[in-house]
Amino acid sequence: xxxxxxxxxxxxxxxxxxxxxxxxxxxxxxxxxxxxxxxxxxxxxxxxxxxxxxxxxxxxxxxxxxxxxxxxxxxxxxxxxxxxxxxxxxxxxxxxxxxxxxxxxxxxxxxxxxxxxxxxxxxxxxxxxxxxxxxxxxxxxxxxxxxxxxxxxxxxxxxxxxxxxxxxxxxxxxxxxxxxxxxxxxxxxxxxxxxxxxxxxxxxxxxxxxxxxxxxxxxxxxxxxxxxxxxxxxxxxxxxxxxxxxxxxxxxxxxxxxxxxxxxxxxxxxxxxxxxxxxxxxxxxxxxxxxxxxxxxxxxxxxxxxxxxxxxxxxxxxxxxxxxxxxxxxxxxxxxxxxxxxxxxxxxxxxxxxxxxxxxxxxxxxxxxxxxxxxxxxxxxxxxxxxxxxxxxxxxxxx
Length: 399
Description:
Blueprint lengths: L4 H6 L25 H9 L14 H14 L3 E5 L2 H12 L5 E5 L4 H10 L6 E5 L4 H7 L4 E7 L11 H10 L3 E5 L16 E5 L13 E5 L1 H7 L6 H5 L5 H11 L2 H21 L3 E3 L9 H7 L9 E5 L3 H13 L4 E2 L9 E3 L11 H7 L5 E5 L6 H14 L4
Parallel strand pairs: 2-3, 2-4, 4-5, 5-6, 10-11
Antiparallel strand pairs: 1-7, 6-7, 8-9, 9-12, 11-12
Helix pairs in contact: 3-10, 11-15
């Protein structure tokens, strides 16, 4: 790592209007001008510190955006009303009718559905490939290719993208590399490894309290200004605005992110090692058995672990469903589709967050009906959590 995101965020001082230690929430949709000339000038180009309308910029949203840029080592960022809003705004800014995207085939189901079912309506096509096969990536490029898209750590199989290799291919072909980093904030910084744009669902680890929906796009100053351009910006014109109260809440939660991620990582590593010790098939990049273990060691921030997400494959849907019910009853966590919460959350991707992917493609990718995705919480006594999981495994008859 060539930068220190935690220190950069902690050094980012934003005072409230009256010297508050927390920045003031600007609860306003529009702003006054001292002269018509200044209003006209702002419509022509952005003026630092001058605000027009909260669909364009809002002071607290801009504060959060600047902090998130520091998190990712980006020049600038923009917050949005959801992770999907961040993805769709970035894609529509980069692509026009007739353009093409190369995407990893193991991605979040909502992204897959957007790529597969929605973008073709606008003449934008997507090739889904094994993003970890660099030769296949190169062979898939055509004169129409505008984006290579992947997740730094994939949902739900925890595959780790070879970001330097993808960046090299992208730059050699004048293609934009867009990386969803939702699973690995602080753990991996895609822009530091050559990505052009990093995207987050702030709903997850960055906010950490499962009480709001939000997203962000991090990239160059040039790209973010294009995104919010009054006349041509996808984000400005589509209008996925994050509420200012939520932006303030996320900004405050951001300052504890490093502590939370460290605990998520410690707990996930403990569960992964001990579940694997029971003979269970575990997907977790911190395990030496994981096919991308060495790769993540080359990419990750050494101050953190290997992420707070893992998956286990119990073979059948029946056993997986029974186990999830029993784990909720035994207070291991909640049966819920999101992630990054301070409580452990678990779900069956094939019937929830990856259900948009056709069954035959799920099988080809390796998403089985017995797969359980687990977002490991901030449990103080992770040994007790493991003992509860073992008890549940025995009770559902897992051998």
